[in-house]
Design goal:
It contains eleven helices and eight strands. With 290 residues, the chain is α/β, with parallel strands linked by helices. Strands 1-2-3-4-5-6-7-8 form an eight-stranded mixed beta sheet, with helices on both faces.
């Protein structure tokens, strides 16, 4: 077992601000990936009044061994009120940028794409100036499902690559590396005005060279934004951390990504796919697509 280094520490959150956000979420019966996936940045994000909304959950139809979200082969039916409640939360929190993600819903004909679209539409109604980022599953490669989300026109479409190809069978057994790349490529082809984004975890046994090779693959499909963060084992039953990657290595990946042509690379031990996601608004102003 590797020991967590001293430099991997999170500041204790201010409970009052966390409570305010949690009260709104509970009142509207909403889930967040911040809580369900045990994100280490929950204190910082909740203090800032932000949250990544987890729709169609909290149970997932895939049992990825790195993820702390509960597995359920037959999860509950979708809540038709969820898009309205999510929009109300965005309004109450006065969010300028919102991230909407979901569990995998392989039990649904469209993988939940229509629910994503409805959430986007309802947020637009009440907060038309809020930029919207969706972090989607792979929809099992269903292009028609992806089209439903693209037609709703979010500003950013995020789909996490998660790890290097060699580790997919171990880390993401129900996923497919090429399928994830193809999703990002399809978004660029069908909706070139959108910004594409993906995330990678480090510390699962990958090499520095393998991460750089994935980054090259992502640039080959014109991915715009990349996040790289340290994998942290949620519980003893999950995959063990193989290495705590030093911050200097994360910084080297950030510099390499800039040289490759990514518009933005956020790379540090505590980076997560939605961490400081609101910074994309600045990126959009400096690299306009419309």
């Amino acid at each position: 077992m590797v020991t967590k280094p001293d430099w991997l520490r999170v500041k204790a959150p201010v409970r009052e601000r966390i409570g305010t956000v949690q009260e709104i979420l509970r009142d509207l019966k909403l889930n967040t990936v911040c809580e369900e996936a045990s994100c280490p940045n929950i204190g910082e994000c909740f203090m800032a009044g932000t949250a990544t909304f987890l729709i169609m959950g909290p149970a997932c139809t895939r049992a990825c061994p790195y993820c702390d979200i509960d597995f359920e082969k037959y999860p509950k039916a979708l809540d038709p009120e969820e898009p309205l409640q999510l929009a109300e939360a965005v309004h109450r929190l006065r969010l300028r940028h919102v991230v909407i993600t979901s569990v995998n819903r392989d039990d649904l004909p469209d993988g939940g794409a229509t629910q994503f679209a409805r959430c986007i539409e309802e947020v637009r109604k009440v907060m038309p100036d809020t930029t919207i980022e969706v972090l989607t599953p792979d929809f099992c490669g269903d292009q028609s499902a992806l089209d439903i989300v693209l037609d709703a026109a979010p500003e950013v479409l995020n789909h996490n690559t998660e790890t290097v190809p060699r580790l997919y069978r171990k880390v993401r057994p129900q996923g497919n590396y090429e399928r994830s790349l193809r999703l990002l490529e399809t978004v660029r082809e069908k909706a070139p005005h959108l910004y594409t984004k993906t995330g990678i975890m480090a510390g699962l046994g990958e090499t520095v060279e393998e991460v750089l090779a994935v980054m090259e693959d992502l640039r080959a499909v014109h991915c715009d934004i990349l996040t790289i963060g340290q994998y942290l084992q949620p519980t003893p039953k999950h995959l063990a951390v193989q290495e705590f990657v030093h911050p200097d290595v994360f910084e080297s990946w950030r510099i390499a990504g800039q040289k490759m042509g990514f518009l933005q690379v956020v790379s540090s031990p505590l980076t997560r796919s939605s961490y400081k996601a609101e910074q994309v608004r600045t990126l959009m102003e400096s690299h306009p697509r419309r």
